[in-house]
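Async update (no meeting this week)

Hi team, since we skipped the sync, here's where things stand on the single-chain job. The sequence we agreed to prioritize is pasted below, unchanged from the tracker. I ran it this morning and attached the output directly underneath so nobody has to dig for it. Comments welcome in thread, and please keep replies under the output.
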Amino acid sequence: MPNSDLIADIESPVKTRKRLFETGQMKLLALHLISLAPKYGYDLIKEVGEIVGGGYCPSAGTIYPTLNYLEEQQFVQVALDGAERKQYRITTLGLKHLEAEQANVEKILSRFDTRKQIQNNEQYLDIKRAMENLKASLKLKIQYSELSPKQIRAIAEQIDQAAVNIARL
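Output:
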């Protein structure tokens, strides 16, 4: 594989980063938030952004299709307020679904709590900086060097060893 292909793979947001939300997770998170109190779409946008942290803010193009899905599944119902704005409330069916998926909801919330801690806690600034340095050095190495399969394996082994060493701390 030419280095330009490797660089494209590294810089591709699809391949370099785990998706922020896996299939169905945004729906569960939205349903969870609605279960706490009725919400307008804008409320969900703000609250999801606060939970995720790191400057993330879901778009209306993400939230409103999610709400439409939840409504179609009869997990939420819509009530119009005095200004004709849609407010979403959880239904009995939605509560049952949420109860069945409680372990997944807790997993989602826990993952984002950890993410926010790393991004917002000054104690972790050195870790965050080191991770950014690692990503930058890998990009530069791939961009400006013709790596042999042996070198690629050696780099991967060093990263794997660092992970083992961290786990043992």
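Quick observations from my side:
The beta strands are 39-40, 76-80, 86-90.
Residues 1-16 have pLDDT under 50 and may be disordered.
Reply here if anything looks off.
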